[in-house]
Write a structure and sequence with these properties.
By secondary structure, the protein is an alpha+beta fold. The chain is built from seven helices and 20 strands. Strand 7 and strand 8 form a beta hairpin. Helix 4 runs antiparallel to helix 6. The longest helix has about 60 residues.
Length: about 475
């Protein structure tokens, strides 16, 4: 008998449907188990990634505590007179400052020209400054206009800035020293090789000659529209002179920027210890720590009323990290003052829920009463907690190792599914062979039944009219 290639053809039964149902029933328990296992591992993998980020944030904020230094604030009585900034080296105290003169740059102006395109002449311009420096500018046919001379002086970058200013008389070339103070003033501008053959007259290139003494050699044809000056001030009665209006070397740790003169009433600068940076760092650290505690509580909780457990309930890695970070809050530190040995001494306390809180009054009093001791506690606590958090989050740390382990287990789910596919494939092949044999057997039985039925139907019954007579 020929083999039956499609199940059910021989028997007339829907054996393919039955086969598929049996295979699906065999696969379902294992599939469900693997899906549940994978979902659980993925959830743990994701949660531990969040935990690692939260611990990294604690590490960052703890480092900010460890890096805190003495800070100073500078308060000025009249900010229209001057501004002041203080660094950690500034001494605390009150400074009376009188400003009698501001530092100013020197400015020179030429005769008026009709337009910036007016041709002046060719030659060489030599500019000398009060600090004995000098520079030369060559003027030829490519740059001998008023505008061209301006650009050539600026390109020389010799400490003088050239510009064009238009007033009622016309366009003037102005020369302004790049820096304030008398040491940077222009003392002399000499012309040589004037294209008109005369280096000392008030025409051609020589009309740009200048001498701070007013000539006669060289002559002085530029007008000194603004004199260079040094700043003159007094600090607590001590006279100070500065070429700049920004003074960073007069009072240690203090930078002053002068804006205008004071007159008879001095301006005061008060330098005090600044607690703002420390306060902000403490609040940032507490916030990061409490976010971590919230995450731990959410991940490892159990709701007795609903029977719902957190994804990391009972997880030893999470418990270890959490316990060690909590315990670090209670460490003792050496500040040199027996009244400042713990974080609680600077206003940081632990509640019954394990979260931190800051008593702003205690923190403020501690920083104001003994800034150095408070700073020592915060520095040491920050350094200790930063090192602990770093050990957890490093590439070979407990959190990274756990995350790697979960990733490996997730990857192995694929191997388990491949093994399941092979097993189910063998199971399906075996069923298919058995169903094929059954189908052939039923087909044979059907054929035999049809044959017997035909034979029985061909036997004449007694009394039948179909009986042959001779």
């Amino acid at each position: 008998m020929a083999s039956i290639s499609s199940l059910g053809i021989g028997s007339g039964l829907d054996l393919n449907s039955l086969l598929n149902q049996l295979v699906a029933a065999e696969r379902a328990p294992a599939d469900n188990r693997l899906n549940k296992k994978e979902a659980d591992l993925q959830a743990k993998f994701s949660t531990f990634g969040t935990v690692q980020s939260a611990v990294s944030e604690i590490q960052t904020k703890a480092k900010a505590l460890a890096d805190l230094t003495q800070a100073r604030s500078a308060t000025v009585s009249d900010t229209s007179i001057l501004s002041a900034t203080a660094d950690a080296t500034a001494g605390t105290g009150l400074f009376n400052i009188t400003v009698s003169t501001l530092a100013a740059a020197q400015s020179l102006a030429s005769n008026a020209f009709t337009a910036s395109t007016d041709v002046v002449n060719t030659g060489t311009i030599t500019v000398s400054l009060a600090d004995s420096s000098s520079f030369q500018v060559t003027i030829d046919s490519t740059n001998n206009t008023v505008s061209g001379i301006k650009d050539a002086i600026n390109s020389a970058a010799g400490g003088v800035d050239a510009a064009l200013v238009t007033d009622a008389s016309g366009v003037r070339l102005t020369l302004t020293t790049s820096s304030t103070g008398t040491s940077k003033a222009i003392t002399n501008i000499a012309i040589s090789g004037d294209g008109d053959g005369n280096d000392t007259d008030n025409s051609g290139l020589s009309q740009l000659s200048f001498d701070v003494a007013g000539g006669p050699t060289p002559p002085s044809f530029l007008t000194e529209s603004q004199l260079a000056s040094d700043a003159a001030l007094s600090v607590n009665g001590l006279s100070i002179s500065s070429a700049s209006n920004t003074l960073s070397n007069v009072i240690e740790g203090l930078t002053l920027t002068l804006k205008q003169t004071t007159g008879a009433t001095p301006a005061t600068v008060t330098v005090a210890a600044s607690t703002a940076g420390a306060t902000a760092a403490v609040n940032d650290f507490v916030g990061s720590f409490n976010s971590f505690i919230d995450l731990v509580d959410q991940s490892a909780s159990f709701d007795a009323s609903t029977g719902v457990a957190g994804i990391l309930l009972g997880d030893s890695t999470l418990r270890s990290v959490s316990d060690r970070l909590r315990n670090a809050i209670f460490d003792d530190f050496n500040s040199g003052d027996v009244n400042f040995q713990r974080l609680s001494d600077v206003g940081i306390s632990v509640g019954s829920d394990g979260k931190l809180s800051v008593d702003s009054t205690v923190l403020s009093d501690a920083l104001n009463d003994n800034f150095n001791a408070s700073l020592a506690v915060l520095n040491q606590a920050g350094s200790s907690i930063e090192a602990l958090a770093k050990a957890f989050t490093d590439s070979d740390g407990i959190l990274d190792s756990r995350i790697d382990s979960l990733q490996s287990q997730i990857t192995s789910i694929g191997d388990d599914r491949a093994a399941l596919d092979r097993r189910i494939g063998l199971f399906q092949d075996r069923l298919q062979r058995q169903f094929a044999n059954l189908d052939q057997l039923l087909s044979q039985l059907n054929q035999q039944g049809d044959f017997l039925l035909g034979q029985l139907q061909s036997i004449p019954l007694p009394g039948s009219n179909n009986t042959n007579k001779s």
